[in-house]
Amino acid sequence: METMIQIHQVSKTFKGSETITNVNMNVNRGEIYGFLGPNGAGKTTIMKMILNLVKPSSGEIRVFNQPVLPTSVQYLKRIGSIIEYPVFYDRLTAEANLDLHCRYVGYHSKSAIKEALEIVGLHGVGKKIIHEFSLGMKQRLGIARAIVTKPDILILDEPINGLDPIGIKDIRELLLHFKANYGTTILISSHIVSEIESVADTIGIIHQGQLLTEVKMEDIRGQHAGSLEEYFINLVHGGKRYA
Predict the structure, then answer these.
(1) Contact at 8 Å (CB) between 146 and 187?
(2) Are 186 and 113 in contact (CB under 8 A)?
(3) What is the distance between the alpha carbons of residues 212 and 204, in angstroms, rounded to a whole number?
(4) How far apart are CA 33 and CA 167, in angstroms?
(5) Minimal CA–CA distance to 48: which of 75, 84, 74?
(6) How many CA atoms lie within 13 A of 25 on its CB side?
(7) Distance between CA atoms of 204 and 215, rounded to whole angstroms?
(8) Cβ atoms of residues 196 and 36 within 8 Å
C-alpha cells in the first residue's frame, strides 16, 4: 500500500522544551487516518509540520514520497487543509474567498466553487459577506476551501469545532464521500473519540508529544473486542476516566 505521508523520528523543540518526541507515523493512500489525543497533545504541531508551517527540529517528513524541505511549496497544491480556526477576508463574499484560494493554487473551475459550497451545506450564501457568517458557517466554509480543488490529501485539524450535531453529521458523511468517490487520503485530528471512531480506518494516538500507537480500527473491534474509547482510556490514562 502506498504511503502518502511518512513521518520518521520527528521531534520539535520550542524554546528549549521538546514538545514532539521521535514521532513515526504513516498515512496510506485512500484511508481516513484518525489522529486522536487530548488538547495540547501535539496534533496541530505535527499537522503544521506536514504543511511546512512549522519546521521540525529533527527527523524527516515525506509527502507524496518526496522529502518536505524548508523551501518545499509545490506539493501543497495537492493538499487541502484546515488548521485550527479558518481565517478569511471578512469583507469579501464566500465565493470571492474561494475564488482567491483557487487562483492561488492554480485551479480554475467556477463550477467547483458552487459545488463545494453545496457539499458543506452553504447553498445560497455564496454572495454573502464573511463578517455576517456565524462560527459554524465559517467552519463549513473552511472545509469548502479545503475540498474545492479536489485535493489528493485532506488535512483537517478539529474540523467539527463550532458545529452543531447536524453539522457534525454532515462532515462525517462528507469525509466518507470523498474517500469513496475520489479516493482522497484524509488525516483528521480530534479529541472527541466517538467522531474519530465513526470514520477512521487507522487510528494514531498521541499523548504529551509522543505517538503511543498506530492501530487499525478493525483490530480494535476485533482483537481488542471493544470500543475505541475503552482502548484510548486504557492506553492514555491507564483505565482511569476523566470528567
Answers:
(1) no
(2) no
(3) 8
(4) 20
(5) 84
(6) 33
(7) 7
(8) yes
Q: Widest CA span of the chain, in angstroms?
A: 53
Tell me which residue has cell 470528567: 243
Q: Report residue 174 CA to chain centroid gap.
A: 13
pLDDT digits (tens, 9 = 90+) for 124-150: 999 999 999 998 899 899 999 999 999
Q: Phi and psi for 227 in degrees, rounded to 5?
A: -90, 165
156: DSSP letter: E
The b/e string for 25-45 (b: 16+ C-beta within 10 A; e otherwise) is bbbeebbbbbbbbeeebbbbb
3-state secondary structure of 125: coil
**pTM as predicted:** 0.91
Which residue(s) pair with 189 in the sheet? 35, 157
- Give the integer Cα–Cα distance in Å for 52 and 86: 17
Range in 133-147, 162-176, 190-204 the model is least confident about: 162-176
